[in-house]
Give the backbone structure.
Amino acid sequence: MLGYDPADPYAVRIRFGGRPARPAVDERRARHPAAAGLAGGDGGDEGRDEGRDGGVEWMVARDLLRAGLSHPAGDGDVRLWPARTAGDVLFLELRAPSGHALFELSRSVLAGFVADTERLVPTGREGEALDVDHELHALLQGEGPDTGAR
């Protein structure tokens, strides 16, 4: 499942297995109509979080997804590139100490998802969507990002 939250405009979350660590996309949309999401079998700033439910959530830079639509993008743990043959195929490679995975994605579906995120927060205007003062205050109070303690 792919998810995008305009409150975290640089990151896209990719969730595998288990239940989402954050509310499901439809539940988030009810509270924040601008949340974008895509669920289905289609499979820099990257990261990984192993949830208590056995699922894994990766955070990937939206810029990496955009770049990977047309040419190889990414270093290290997350890489994305279009297939050399004609068609609607992209490859997403994820690496972690616990293993390696290679996914085949629909380029048109991912391009549509990225376009949806850009309608919510246009490229180059991500900084306007951040509440830096609030995040800095939370960090200085020891609450850290996304702890739910705020």
Summary: The first strand starts at residue 2 and ends at 4.
